Amino acid sequence: MTLRASAVTWNRGGALVVDGVTIDPRPGEMMGLLGPNGSGKSSLLTLMAGAAAPTSGRIELDGNDLTTLRRKHIARAVAVVDQHAHTDVDVTVRDVVRLGRIPHRGTFGPSADDETAVAAALEQTGLTDKAGCLWRRLSGGERQRAHIARALAQQPRELLLDEPTNHLDIHHQLEILALIARLPITSVVALHDLNLAALFCDRVVVMQDGRVVAAGNPADVLTEDLVARVYGVRAVVTRETGGRVHIRFEPGAPTPPSDAPPAPPTRPHAVSSAR
Ligand SMILES: Nc1ncnc2c1ncn2[C@@H]1O[C@H](COP(=O)(O)OP(=O)(O)OP(=O)(O)O)[C@@H](O)[C@H]1O
């Protein structure tokens, strides 16, 4: 059993930003959530984190509707790294990472286990040397790693990450995603970099206009045709040793397939829903 979304819809400010999405990550797998800007990835993660209730459908944790569960119960199982975490308060990196232990805290306050988990999370994200620094003095990438460390200190079963690598240099992109892939937890990761998704994700789900338009093994899903239809970009996809795909993007508009219907003016690359 794990965290899953079943036929989830979210009407946000009058617009259907998540439209009938079902995703069912397998225990222990890393699932990539892909799709252009505004396709609904962050909205879906918000629902899966229990931060908002879907308009229809269900988010389930171990078969229970998330809206019926206590926040502390959810926080012991599910950790979230979102895009916009910010604070102006003078807290240290270690203080930020310690926040991850709040759901586990008993009546007697912090325990030795809490400090062990915090130290391990700092180590895993390469932040041990920065533990005493003020969070607001960190670079964008270091802040992002501190938030990942906070989520790891939470020792979750399920990890939801919204573009966790967008501020990271290439070394830390590879290191953080390799770490997440290695952890024996289920993760759902919104990513813009299709090559990183191909490199690390067990499965990918591609969203467009709030819907799932493709899902499966990255090598099966990330085709030249899909990149053209969903992103409106020409790409050359090559298969490397071991079956992994590599995507090279090319300038210029993709050639539409000869049987493609005329593109509507506002959504030039819309494809039908895979629901
Ligand atoms: N607070 C909000 N109220 C109303 N609509 C919103 C709100 N936040 C986002 N939206 C809309 O929901 C849609 C999906 O946005 P969302 O942030 O989920 O997409 P995304 O795939 O994560 O995009 P990006 O890749 O740019 O982060 C967009 O059309 C966006 O304008």
TrEMBL record:
UniProt cross-references to InterPro entries, sorted A to Z: AAA+_ATPase, ABC_transporter-like_ATP-bd, P-loop_NTPase
Sequence ranges assigned to domain ABC transporter in this UniProt record: 3-234
CDD domains: ABC_Iron-Siderophores_B12_Hemin
Residues that span the membrane, as ranges: none
The keyword Calcium appears for this protein: no
Protein's name in the database: ABC transporter ATP-binding protein
Comp. bias (Pro residues): 253-267
Start and end residues of each stretch annotated as Disordered: 247-275
Record key words, sorted: ATP-binding, Nucleotide-binding
GO-annotated molecular function: ATP binding
Pfam families on file: ABC_tran (PF00005)
Keyword set includes Methyltransferase: no
PROSITE patterns: ABC_TRANSPORTER_2
